[in-house]
Structures are given as structure tokens and as C-alpha cells.
Amino acid sequence: MTVTKGESVPEGADGEADMTGGAGDGYVPSERRLERERYKRARARRATAVAALSTLVTAVVLYVVVISAPGWPRTKETFFSAQYAREAFPKVLQGLWLNVRLLVICGAAVLVLGMLIAIARTLRGPVFFPLRVLAAAYTDFFRGLPLIINLMIVVLGVPALRLQGVTVDPVLLGGTALTLTYSAYVAEVFRAGIESVHPSQRAAARSLGLTNRQALRHVVLPQAVRRQVPPLLNDLVSLQKDTGLVSIGGAVDAVRAADIIVGRSLNYTPYIVAGLVFVALTIPMTRFTDWVTARMDRQRAQGGSL
Amino acid sequence: MYPALRTPRRAAAAATIALLTTAVGCAPQPDAKASATSSGAAAKSCSQGKLATRTSGKLTIATDEPAYEPWFKDDKPANGKGFESAVAYAVAKQLGYGENAVVWQSVPFNKAFAPGVKTFDFDVNQVSISNERKKAVDFSSGYYDVRQAVIALKGSKAAGATSVADLKGLKLGAQVGTTSLDYITDVVKPKQEPAAFAKNDQAKSALKNGQVDAIVVDLPTAFYITGAEVTDAKIVGQFENMGGTPEQFGLVLDKGSALTGCVSGAVDALRKDGTLARLEKQWLSDAVDAPVLK
Question: Which range is the signal sequence, renumbered to this chain (chain B) (predicted)?
Fold first, then answer.
């Protein structure tokens, strides 16, 4: 807030307006200024009141429309039955523990594998040509392959080979399939990050006497990863929801736990419960993503160090 | 699509209209008139071949795809072979619909008895009758008394089980939405969480690949699986009925369907004149017995 100069300060004006202006510099806000402040405050109060009223009206209208809609009682019984919600909730939570474990372990594996593939794709030099081709083929294949087919082949097909020393545990196999698909996605995210770092950065690093590897490790990758945090977290949220697909091998996760109750009772409340539990798990992650993005934007806006 | 809504008032009006339209659009279909349930009353309204079916003059019958043996043969429900196909045609005939007036439809197991409007007149898909399910759909009288059985690979730990207690320490599996799974959770109460499969095929492949020690299916299916599909598996035994009441398969109809009374009457008549017993003997004769797991 800047104080316009040249405004005469009338005697006796109380200087207790909530405003900036160094204390003790003898500044007293003008009558006109105080009037302006009062007006602004009144407008703000009015805006708040209007917003509250309009929200209230909307809520009432929505409530009336939903409750009075024909078919609401049946909808309520089929989707929002308290009895089935109580029955489903503990079982869904029990199943969710499997989703969370899968998310943590697969998430870590995906980050490591994705990074390795991205580095393989961006290696320079003719000697690495086959490696580049293999990495490109891997990402193309697993990004194009529908996850459900991947899961079916790995979870249902691999055990039929009866390979020595290969697990038949559907959770481990399902986790493997998820890791294969998601590491392809994440590799592309990392690669985009690596390629978005300006060539001058690498050139500068090399001219300072860093080896190619050192330049990658200390100059390029830190910038690349930091830039790609939002899309990475996006993929993580997506992975979290897809962990439920391992139930194809019979493992009981949150969705399958709901499935079991639905199949027995023909009431759909357990699905709603499972859905809400997933949403509740995703919201903190999404908020975190937003916060990270905003923080990075601020840093960049301030011309902070990259 | 829409011109930009320039004023808040206009936007509010549009939103309200949209809301109301949605609310009205979500009105449920009027329920079919309560069906006559007593067969006496049913007999009067069940005029031969003139029921209020989906397609007038035709009887639309649904089942899952693939249709499993021994309930159906060669995955062709329309060929009249297999127990359920034969029963469906017998019921149709009883209602006055000849073979040419029967239309088959493929509906997944879980979808067949989900609440909501049905695209078929009745569904025949080894669906067990339960009071809980009756809240969502109508059932005809039972056309088959079913027992649940345990299958395991020959020579495995599970194959030697002689009682329910012997199964407690094993990894068991069954299809989601089936009473087979209920038998595992409510009767066996195993220490390990049972595997729940979307389809019986996946349960079979899990058994073959050693991902589960044993699976639970209904007895005729168990005989078919061990006889033709997984020949290195055997039937360990059958369960006694939960709660002492026999479990029955019923034909599934829409909740409040006008046909329920007539279809039930037809099933009852077929039971009375021995047709059901004859068809059972013809198609499920080998599924007579297995040791009972106490």
C-alpha cells in the first residue's frame, strides 16, 4: 500500500487505522483514506455475507432436489446403506493395507527402474546404441500394452510355466507387472526432464572439467528430477489406484473385499466405501503435489537458483 | 456447445434447470405389478405363450459366457444340452413357449443378479437363492439342490483332508459372489485369507499352478473339473449344508417381475412330474456323491 503524497493531514484524525506506514514517523492517515478503508471493509463483509447466503441456498436446493427426487429411497438403500457400510469398512481397510504395501514397494522399484531406463535412453556415444534401442523398445512396448493384459499374462500366465525358483504368489507377480508398466511411464517422465535441461548446462559442466558421468550426476539429473516432481507424483497417484488390479490373481485388496460383500448381498454400498477410502488416500497426495508445484513456481518466479 | 453464460443469474438458472432435469431423469421405472405368487392364482394369469415378456411372443433367457459344463454343453446354451439348458427349455415349454420362441442372451454372472432393469425374462446361471439377494431380485422356486465341494490336486496336503478342521491351515480359493466363497469364510474359517477370483477359470488355473491348495465349487462343477479339465485333481469331499437348509439354485427374475409367479409355477410342476429328477439323472448323474466333510 502506498500512501499518496500531498494529502493534507487534518488535525485530530486518529491514526489508528490498520495500515502500513512506519510507526512513529508522524504519519497520520487522511480522512479520505480512512473513509476508503471503511468502505473496503464494508464491501468485503458484504461479499462474505453474499457468498455464505448463496452457498446456503445452493446447499438447500441440492438437498431438496436430491431427497425429493423419485428414486432417492432406492438409491439410498442400494448405495448408502449404513448397515453394509459398517460391515464393509473394516474389511475394505484390511484390503487397503495390501494396496498401500504394493504402492510403497512398487513405487520405489518404479522410480529406480524408470531412472535407469531414462539414463540408458539419453546416453551419448555410438557404443551405447543397442542400449538406447533396447530402452526405447521397452518404453514403447510397456506404455502401449494395456495394463490389464500385462497383469493377466504375468499373474495368470507365468505360474503356468512352472519355472524353477519363480514365485507363484499373485501379489508378487502383480507387483512385478505394475512395476514393468509404470517404470515405462516414469522413464519417459525422467527422460523429458533430462532433455529439458539446457545443453549449456552440460557444456558448462564439461568445460569445468567434469566427466560426462559427473556432469549427469551433479548438474543434469538434479535439475531434471526437480522439474519433474509434479508429473511423477501424478504417476504415483495413478499407480496407487491401479494396485487394486492385482486382485486378478485372487489376492484380496480393498476393491475385491468390497466385491465379495457386493456379490453376496447385491448391495453396492461396499463399492462406495472402497471408492471413498481410495479418494481419502489420494487427496493428501494430490494436495502435496499441488504444494510442491506451487513452491517450485514461486522459487522460479523469484529467480531462485535452479 | 453452449454459448458462454454471461451473467451469474443466467448461469444459476441454467444450473437449476440442469439439476431439475437430472432429478426428473433419474426417476425410477415404475415397478412391475406385484406378481401373483401362489401357483393357484398364477395358473389363471399364466396364459400359455402369452406372458408379458420382454419381446412379445418370445421368451428371453440369459446365462453367462462361457457357459460351463455340465450345466451347458459346448458353450452353446441354445442346443438344449446340459442340465440348465434342458431345464430352461422345459420351463419354457411349461409356459407355452416352444424351442423356436426361446431367445438366449449372454449376461455375466455378477450382472445377472445385480439390481436394476433386466434385459431378459429370466436368467439361469447357477445362482443360489438367499434371503439377502431376494431384496434385490426375484427368484423362482429352486430347480436344483446344490452342495459345495472341495477340489485339490492329487497327492497334495489338501487331498488328504477328511474333515473341515483339516482345511483350516490351507490356502483356499473360490469365485467372488458365490456361496462357495461363503462356505470358506463361514464354515472352514481358514487361518489364511482365502483367494477370491473373478471367474472359476482363474480359480482352476490357480489350483493347477499351485497358487492355492484347494478350491471350492458346487458339486456337479467339481465332478466336471476333476473329470475333464484338471484331471490331476480330485474331489476331497463335500460340505454339509450351512444352517441345515438345503441350498438351491433358482431362476433369476427382475425384482417384482410379472413372470415370477408363472415361472415358479412351471418349476414346481416340473419337480412334481419328475422332469427335474429325470434331467438331473441325464446330465448330472455322476455328481451323486462325495465324502462329506464334517
Answer: 1-26
Nearest CA in chain B to A91: B193
Pick the residue from chain A with its C-alpha nearest to B203.
Answer: A250
CATH of residue B56's domain is 3.40.190.10
Which pLDDT band, with edges at 50, 70 and 90, does A24 fall under? low
Residue A28 has pLDDT above 50, yes or no: yes
User: Which has more confidence, B108 or A17?
Assistant: B108
| 8-state DSSP, B152 | E
**What is the structure's pLDDT at A15?**
44
Q: What is the mean pLDDT of chain A?
A: 85
Mean per-residue pLDDT for A162-175? 84
Q: What is the mean pLDDT of residues B252-264?
A: 88
Sign of the dihedral defined by the CA atoms of residues B41, B44, B46, B52, in that order:
negative
B273 & B222 share domain = no
For B121, the domain range is: 14-146+246-285
Question: Do B22 and B115 lie in a common domain?
Answer: yes
A146 in contact with B, Cβ within 8 Å: no
Question: What is the domain count for chain B?
Answer: 2
Is A101 within 8 Å of chain B by CB?
no
Query: Residue B202 and residue A264: Cβ atoms within 8 Å?
Result: no
B4, part of any domain:
no
User: Is residue B113 domain-shared with residue B158, that is, in the same domain?
Assistant: no
Homologous superfamily (CATH) of A81-296 is MetI-like (1.10.3720.10)
Mutate to test the interface with A, among B118, B208, B211 (most CBs of A within 10 A): B211
In a domain, B234, yes or no: yes
Closest Cα of chain B to A220: distance in Å? 45
Residue B77 included in any domain: yes
Q: Where are the domains of chain A?
A: 81-296
Q: Which residue has the higher pLDDT, A33 or B241?
A: A33
Partner-chain contact A263 B177, CB within 8 Å: yes
Would you say residue A1 has pLDDT above 70? no
> What is the pLDDT at residue A11?
47
This prediction has a pTM of 0.73
**CB–CB contact A250 B205 (8 Å):** no
Instruction: Give a yes or no: residue B98 inside a domain.
Output: yes
What local confidence, expressed as pLDDT, does residue A12 receive? 46
